[in-house]
Amino acid sequence: MNDDLWSAIGDPTRRTMIDLLLAGGSGTATSLAEKLPVTRQAVAKHLAVLDRVGLVTAKPAGRERHYQVDEAQLAKAVAQLASVGASWDARLRRIKRLAEAIERKSKGDQDG
Amino acid sequence: MNDDLWSAIGDPTRRTMIDLLLAGGSGTATSLAEKLPVTRQAVAKHLAVLDRVGLVTAKPAGRERHYQVDEAQLAKAVAQLASVGASWDARLRRIKRLAEAIERKSKGDQDG
DNA sequence: AGCCATGGGCAACCAAAGGTTGCGCAAAGC
DNA sequence: GCTTTGCGCAACCTTTGGTTGCCCATGGCT
């Protein structure tokens, strides 16, 4: 199931970082750290993780490193989220239908 | 955003456990551990986590503890997954539209 | 050119979380 | 009544998210 992608977006700080990058188009470790409750180093580590799984890409600009979201990879991650969600949703629906069917049957038994 | 729910389903082992519980209706720490690459104790810890956030409930049966998924809470979790996914999806779409608009504009500039 | 402010990488360290082994206990089964 | 067996608890290890401290390089200012 490619758990790397999941675990990458599993961390709340990293999710917020992706949000910030999407909102601003791009950002550096320092600029992101200003908007997050963690230090620049922590952000840098997260960026390294996101970079490793391809969710972000870095372009060096002078002494700065501008990170931006890789759209294709994020789309992949979103698809995985949707997939798991859909699977569970389907099962929940099936359970619900089953429960309703049983209830109807028990009512029918009482009536009969 | 209720990160507890997210972090609960963020772990791949716990996701698989939820899958197994949904598939089988219910299960014990021992029965789940048989189908997982981890020890019973690890499973028990995960069950404790899932129990704490309300994703599963335990019903003692003799010396066994049968766990089953709380449908309402799982539905909540699925909704959160969908929400984050939808948010990113929307942003990705907006970016794509913007990129296309810019491309059209540059072509128009060349033509004019 | 020279200096200092600033962005960033590296290393050491800490705490929490996922995982393991080992133990002990209580309920089921013979 | 004795043995299995399912669980819970405790100690320990490793990874990971986070911190502080230090140093290097680049860029702006004078």
UniProtKB/TrEMBL annotation, chains A, B:
<protein>
    <submittedName>
        <fullName>Transcriptional regulator, ArsR family</fullName>
    </submittedName>
</protein>
<dbReference type="Pfam" id="PF12840">
    <property type="entry name" value="HTH_20"/>
</dbReference>
<dbReference type="InterPro" id="IPR011991">
    <property type="entry name" value="ArsR-like_HTH"/>
</dbReference>
<feature type="domain" description="HTH arsR-type">
    <location>
        <begin position="1"/>
        <end position="89"/>
    </location>
</feature>
<dbReference type="InterPro" id="IPR036388">
    <property type="entry name" value="WH-like_DNA-bd_sf"/>
</dbReference>
<dbReference type="GO" id="GO:0003700">
    <property type="term" value="F:DNA-binding transcription factor activity"/>
</dbReference>
<dbReference type="InterPro" id="IPR036390">
    <property type="entry name" value="WH_DNA-bd_sf"/>
</dbReference>
<dbReference type="InterPro" id="IPR001845">
    <property type="entry name" value="HTH_ArsR_DNA-bd_dom"/>
</dbReference>
